Amino acid sequence: MPRRTGYRPGSPCWVDCITPDLDGTQRFYTELFGWQYTAEGPGYHLARLGGEIIGGTGAAPPGLPPVASWTVYLAAKDIDATSAEVRRLGGRIVMGPVATGADGRLCLAVDPDGAPVGFWEGHHDVGVVLADEAGAVCDFELRTPRPERAERFYGGLFGCSVRGEGTGLSLELDGTRLARITRTPPGEQPYWLPHFGATPDAVARAHALGATAPAPNDDLPAPVRLRDPWGAHFALTPPL
Questions:
Q1: Which CB contacts under 8 angstroms, 24+ apart, belong to 58-66?
Q2: Are strands 69-75 and 52-59 parallel, antiparallel or unpaired?
Q3: pTM above 0.90, yes or no
Q4: Residue 125, SS3 per DSSP
Q5: How many other CB atoms are there within 10 angstroms of residue 163's CB atom?
Q6: How far apart, in whole angstroms, are the C-alpha atoms of residue 196 and residue 234?
Q7: d(Cα 225, Cα 219) in Å, to the nearest integer?
């Protein structure tokens, strides 16, 4: 089992799905990936695979639109300083920073092109523990209309740069690939997309469970973008 025990600042370190139907969402991902859940706080659960942490699921606060969403969090050494830089670089803080028990602090933001993103300052090094296998996070993707603007924002925060050409863009930090970048067409809402490792039958199983495709998709091994029954975007990809 590939295990991760630490994340450098700027690296995607956590994912969670906030949903208007926590029970239904958990059943969906359990049937798709075999996840189990342990309560972490009121309305929030850690998602586990084989006992190892792979992310979180939470109940949406009252008053929000009845749509689920996955959030990708980037590791931050000093979340107060990061929040100030988000504002200086043209982003917007939506929530926080706030403490999450004894584990650390988080804030939620929107980057200059409108992609929601989280930041996490952990009091311990560990975020997602199990990765890069079927049912766990295997990759991340920033879907944005202007990769060059994303480079200025995330580069200003952490020193990241965009590398590659055409459809082969990636966000890198000191030569390490953090995420793929897709230049989106006009009218598509920018967002961060978690990719989960999948077995060959996972796409058909996801559709049978009520997932839909936002655009025509190839089958695996190409990454397949889907929406769960409550609207949260995620992708399936072969494990690394």
A1: 58/16, 58/17, 58/18, 58/19, 58/22, 59/18, 59/19, 59/20, 59/22, 60/18, 60/19, 60/20, 64/20, 66/20, 66/230
A2: unpaired
A3: yes
A4: coil
A5: 14
A6: 8
A7: 10
Q: List helix spans (H) across the chain.
A: 22-33, 79-88, 147-158, 202-208
In contact, 145 and 190? CB cutoff 8 Å: yes
**Mean per-residue pLDDT pooled into runs of 10, the chain (240 residues):** 75 96 98 96 93 94 92 96 98 93 89 97 70 89 96 97 91 95 93 94 94 76 91 90
What order of strands is seen across the sheet that includes strand 92-99?
Answer: 36-41, 44-49, 52-59, 12-19, 69-75, 116-122, 104-110, 92-99
Cα(81)–Cα(47) distance, integer angstroms: 29
Token digits of residue 126: 């560990």
Structure tokens at 11: 């690296």
Per-residue tokens: 82: 């990061």
- Reading the block at residue 26, the tokens are 């958990």
